């Protein structure tokens, strides 16, 4: 079975991207590879043609934990015509079960405190199998997200939702509630994945506006204690 999109086809971008595969190729897999943190900062309007931009990536930190290793990387999208940076993307992944590596680099992990008051807005939604199957068009064909038997082999009760699919639901909730439905208002996103979401589970995005340009959010399932994602989204 095809796990990831690859080759030279242009229907979707290759997944995982080649720079990422180069970084993880030295790490022997011991278990599932899970999303840790993601961030996106838009610095200027992105070029409309892929011929006009380039991606430059590097591994920024490796952190050995008791139950695995975290690898952090940064990707910068550059306008080739002007040399200007258009966007910065941060990424960390957790390799479950990998041990024996030496920590290196400086982690970009940020701890953000959620206000100790009721959320300003809340939106709940069920993540259906249809949505997860549609999200696979991003290029991530990992069977962990659609095959219950594969998920059980890795210790999950059934297939889990892609981390970025869960993030997409929450960001859409925030755009609807605080940006009048206009994604162009978003200038930056940062999140930390705390726990996987199973297909068919209901998530609730709790949102707090802390100033004119920033909304903090926490995504939960079932209760405020069962947190699956936290951090913030900044709007213009």
From TrEMBL:
It comes from the Eukaryota. One of its GO terms (molecular function) is 17-beta-hydroxysteroid dehydrogenase (NAD+) activity. Residues 115-219 form the MaoC-like domain. InterPro entries: HotDog_dom_sf, MaoC-like_dom. GO terms for cellular component: peroxisome. Gene3D superfamilies: Hotdog Thioesterase (3.10.129.10). This is MaoC-like domain-containing protein. PANTHER family: PEROXISOMAL MULTIFUNCTIONAL ENZYME TYPE 2, PEROXISOMAL MULTIFUNCTIONAL ENZYME TYPE 2-RELATED. GO terms for biological process: fatty acid beta-oxidation.
């Amino acid at each position: 079975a095809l796990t990831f999109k690859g080759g030279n086809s242009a229907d979707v971008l290759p997944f995982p991207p080649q720079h990422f595969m180069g970084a993880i190729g030295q790490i022997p897999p011991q278990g599932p590879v899970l999303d840790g943190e993601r961030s996106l900062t838009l610095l200027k309007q992105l070029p409309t043609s892929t011929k006009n931009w380039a991606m430059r990536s590097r591994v920024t930190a490796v952190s050995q934990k008791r139950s695995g290793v975290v690898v952090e990387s940064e990707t910068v999208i550059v306008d080739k015509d002007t040399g200007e940076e258009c966007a910065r993307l941060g990424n960390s992944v957790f390799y479950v079960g990998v041990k024996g590596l030496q920590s290196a680099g400086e982690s970009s992990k940020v701890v953000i405190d959620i206000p100790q008051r009721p959320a300003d807005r809340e939106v709940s939604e069920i993540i259906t199998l249809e949505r997860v199957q549609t999200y696979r068009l991003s290029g991530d064909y990992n069977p962990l997200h659609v095959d219950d038997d594969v998920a059980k082999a890795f210790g999950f009760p059934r297939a889990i939702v892609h981390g970025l699919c869960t993030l997409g639901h929450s960001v859409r909730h925030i755009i609807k509630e605080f940006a009048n439905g206009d994604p162009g208002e978003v200038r930056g996103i940062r999140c930390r994945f705390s726990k996987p979401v199973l297909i068919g589970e209901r998530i609730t995005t709790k949102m707090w506006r802390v100033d004119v340009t920033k909304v903090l959010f926490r995504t939960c399932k079932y209760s405020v204690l069962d947190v699956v994602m936290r951090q913030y989204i900044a709007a213009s």
